[in-house]
């Protein structure tokens, strides 16, 4: 399907709403039936009809149709946040007594779900280094039902070979779920590589303006219906019509935002490579990265996240650099218009130097600003850092 068609037309029945070019926000919890027979039909076909908005809502459905088309899957289901989508996808596959294999260091919320939530319900989880696909096979047991992937994963951007892991999983009848937020649905399509369920935090690139939270799970009709009937309806983490509308608006400009972010990021990384204050740049799109070949094979383009390691062993210097940036905002998340840093040093507890990550690491997200504007900001912060 043509990308322009998906983003501008698919699912949009303009004649039904005064030929408005912008989709309507159907801000209604309820949809009325005229007869008992109609209501009976509605109740029996709850996955397809509009009866109650913790179910289907026309504005949300329009978004779901576009996201499924972007990921190349039969269907998609939207949630109120990326974590709601991750949780629904994972919970839909497990029961007490099952075993899950998960990449180590997934996004912090997924980490919590795996390490602290699932074990409470009798699901055992093994965290592995996903850079070698054989590690999935080796960690699998008789009762393994799910491989949970995030590629590239958060902060340090390790990749998994999605096609290889999917083929190992298929041979063992194990379901695969991947968090594809890093790449957006434009730059990586895991379902085409054999992955069963593809999840996004739509809060990131899909929304693109840092003004909405959302999530989506994409997969076959059968798997999405299963999630709809159970995790979606029973846990109720739905996306509101207004938030679906904001995400639809975000989608209109997704290709140009992604292109701009990709280009500016390459320029900023090229600048940082020349700075002697930078010991390392962790970015799978640099030829010297150990997984460069896989990144080239699996992703269509680079995105805006990378991590640098500052060349210092002085926490104060790291703090001075970060605190001195004037245009990069210090915040969580990414994918919006604004460039961001997330210093690992911020994860250190007062008086303790213990964290999963060295304090010299800083994750960057490059937004929509001019590269010169950002580079100038970095230059003045480096000058303050070395004093
Ligand atoms: C890779 C990744 N997945 C999932 C999430 C969770 O998304 P949300 O914040 O929309 O719940 C995040 C949030 O930062 C993320 O970075």
Which series of helices and strands comes N to C?
HHHEHEHEHEHEHEEHHHEHEHEEEH
What portion of residues belong to β-strands? 15-25%
Q: Uncertain spans, ≥5 residues at pLDDT below 50?
A: none
CATH T-level fold name of the largest domain: Aspartate Aminotransferase, domain 2
Number of DSSP strand runs: 12
Taken together, the total number of domains comes to 2
Overall body shape: globular
Q: Just name the CATH architecture of the largest domain.
A: 3-Layer(aba) Sandwich
- How many whole angstroms does the radius of gyration measure? 22 Å
Q: Quick one: biggest sheet?
A: 7 strands, mixed
Calculate the mean pLDDT score and round it. Answer: 97
The CATH fourth-level homologous superfamily of the largest domain: Type I PLP-dependent aspartate aminotransferase-like (Major domain)
Termini separation comes to 55 Å
Q: What topology, given as strand order, has the largest sheet? A: 1-7-6-5-4-2-3
**Could you tell me which ligands this complex binds, including any ions or cofactors?**
pyridoxal-5'-phosphate
Q: Based on helices, strands and strand pairing, what is the structural class?
A: alpha/beta
* CATH classification class of the largest domain: Alpha Beta
Write the layout of secondary structure elements.
Elements: H1 3-8, H2 36-44, H3 58-71, E1 75-79, H4 82-91, E2 99-103, H5 108-117, E3 124-128, H6 134-139, E4 144-150, H7 162-171, E5 175-179, H8 184-187, E6 197-201, E7 215-219, H9 221-235, H10 241-252, H11 254-273, E8 278-282, H12 292-298, E9 305-310, H13 315-324, E10 329-330, E11 340-343, E12 361-365, H14 371-386
Parallel strand pairs: 2-3, 2-4, 4-5, 5-6, 10-11
Antiparallel strand pairs: 1-7, 6-7, 8-9, 9-12, 11-12
Helix pairs in contact: 3-10, 13-14
Bound molecules: pyridoxal-5'-phosphate (PLP).
């Amino acid at each position: 399907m043509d990308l322009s068609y998906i983003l501008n037309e698919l699912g949009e029945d303009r004649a039904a709403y005064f030929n408005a070019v912008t989709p309507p926000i159907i801000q209604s919890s309820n949809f009325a039936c005229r007869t008992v027979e109609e209501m009976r039909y509605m109740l029996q076909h709850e996955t397809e009809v509009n009866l109650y908005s913790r179910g289907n809502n026309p504005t949300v459905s329009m978004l779901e149709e576009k996201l499924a088309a972007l990921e190349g899957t039969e269907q998609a289901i939207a949630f109120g946040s990326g974590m709601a989508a991750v949780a629904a996808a994972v919970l839909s596959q497990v029961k007490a007594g099952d075993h899950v294999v998960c990449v180590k260091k997934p996004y912090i919320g997924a980490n919590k779900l795996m390490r602290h939530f699932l074990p409470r319900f009798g699901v055992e989880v093994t965290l592995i280094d996903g850079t070698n696909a054989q590690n999935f096979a080796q960690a699998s047991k008789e009762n393994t039902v799910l491989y949970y992937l995030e590629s590239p994963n958060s902060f340090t951007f390790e990749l998994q070979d999605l096609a290889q892991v999917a083929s190992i999983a298929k041979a063992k009848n194990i379901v695969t779920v991947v968090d594809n937020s890093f790449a957006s649905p434009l730059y990586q399509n895991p379902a085409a590589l054999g992955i069963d369920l593809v999840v996004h935090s739509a809060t990131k690139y899909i929304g693109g303006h840092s003004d909405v939270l959302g999530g989506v799970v994409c997969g076959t009709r059968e798997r999405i219906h299963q999630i709809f009937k159970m995790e979606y309806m029973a846990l109720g983490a739905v996306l509101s019509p207004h938030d679906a509308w904001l995400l639809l608006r975000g989608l209109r400009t997704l290709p140009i935002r992604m292109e701009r972010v990709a280009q500016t990021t390459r320029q900023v990384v090229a600048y940082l490579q020349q700075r002697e204050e930078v010991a390392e740049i962790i970015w799978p799109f640099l030829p010297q990265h150990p997984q460069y070949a896989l990144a080239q094979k699996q992703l269509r383009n680079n995105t805006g996240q990378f991590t640098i390691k500052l060349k210092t062993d002085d926490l104060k210097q790291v703090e001075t650099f970060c605190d001195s940036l004037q245009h990069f905002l210090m915040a969580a998340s990414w994918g919006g218009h604004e460039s961001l840093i997330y210093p690992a040093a911020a994860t250190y507890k007062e008086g303790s130097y213990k964290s999963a990550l060295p304090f010299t690491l800083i994750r960057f997200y490059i937004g929509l600003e001019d590269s010169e504007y950002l580079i100038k900001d970095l230059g003045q912060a480096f000058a303050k850092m070395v004093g």
